[in-house]
Amino acid sequence: MVSSRAFKHASKNVSKNASRQATKHASPASLTRAPDTRREAFAIAAPGLAPLVAAELEALGVQVQGVEPAGVAFSATPRMLFRVNCWSRLATRVVMRLDTFTARDFATLEKLARRVPWGDVLRAGDVAELSVTCRKSRLYHSDAVAQRIARGIERMVPGVRAAQADNDDESGEGDEVAAAIDVEQPEPKRDHGKKPKSANRASGPADARVQRILVRFDRDVCTISADASGELLHRRGWRLDTGKAPLRETLAAALIAASEWQGDVPLVDPMCGAGTIAIEAALRARNIAPGLSRSFSCEFWPGVASSLAHEEREAARAAVRDAAAPIVAADRDAGAVEATRTNAERAGVLQSLTVLHQPLSDTDASALGPSGFIVTNPPYGVRTGDPLTLSALWGRLGAMLRSAGPGWRLTAVVPDPALAKELRLPLDRVVMTTTGGRQVAFMRSRAPRGSRTPRATDTPREPHAPDGTVADKSE
Questions:
Q1: Domain of residue 62, CATH code
Q2: DSSP string computed for 282-330
Q3: pLDDT by residue (tens digit) across 191-226?
């Protein structure tokens, strides 16, 4: 007869063996986590913008866990992860942390790579595009690291093809920072749908879904993340027409945030180019989610209900409102004016803008009311080659603001302190960032002593032209 004690001992051993066997032969589904589990995530920000991104996420109800130079750490459920992608005007990309571990040799790396919950973000038929960076680590060869990670993915999620992307580097900054400082590019004419094609080495069938996996080694610590955004978040889908040296949409939105404009008094961009600042202002004023018309990688992950994205988009559409104050975009270049109109129509905000074809010298902000905001990205070296003309232009911008009255404020992209002096205005530097590979400052004019930030109680008057029309005031 088997004693009770022996029976308990045997049962305990059987349970341990069963547990080990279950782990050894775990299916992708068994390595995934509950759909509503709160996960660690990271919102990547362009240089200098992390504090603004943190404030934006907190306004969305996100639990911010830390602010770093490269971005903002936070925790989120799948629903909140989608919401951040859809509503963030400032973040460059959002990633979800899959795992963090220490590995100083390839055997350890390959072993631990099999324990990553790949089934949370990958399913059979997907292409896993690996972006690998290595900094001050014993495992410094990104191709070899990618090879071991790829083996782990393909072993744990059969039917997934994994390979390294073409755009990796060993700059030491990691993909998170590199993604935030890309040189400004026009909006690509591509489909933001569920299954984008890939031109990288991680190519697969034409209809395969591409999931970007970010692998970063820093001092032997490996951090693995899944791109939750897909396309970079500045690619809203509406800017196909560009002017000279265009400002990325996320940077335009950050410039508006730095200005402290609340949407209740007029905003004017007298040198609008392709209209990016004015359009971003209209999207904000009307409470239109910047990602409403595009898709995100996180909505196609295994375990995420197909209804989630639909529900969030419907809620975002229901939140749209009318603009409370005039938004004016003006430029002396007819091509820029036409690009502004085309982009604004594509973004669905043309009727919320007044688009004027006129030079800076004809801009009369005071006609809109006693207070408001001038928010602009004036020309500098990239956009004009004559230093004397450039200095005179910046001088006219300062004169225009002074003539508008003490209730008006200026926020501008300033690439050179010498140009800032031409404004002859007291200025505060709000943000230091980069655009087009060049360091710039977002500077805001200081309010005269005893005055306050312009608000709606100042009762703005109607703009010269009806909403959505073009008034030709060219010289």
A1: 3.30.2130.30
A2: HHHHTT--TTTTS--GGGGSTT--HHHHHHHHHHHHHT----SS-EEEE
A3: 433 433 332 344 455 678 999 999 999 999 999 999
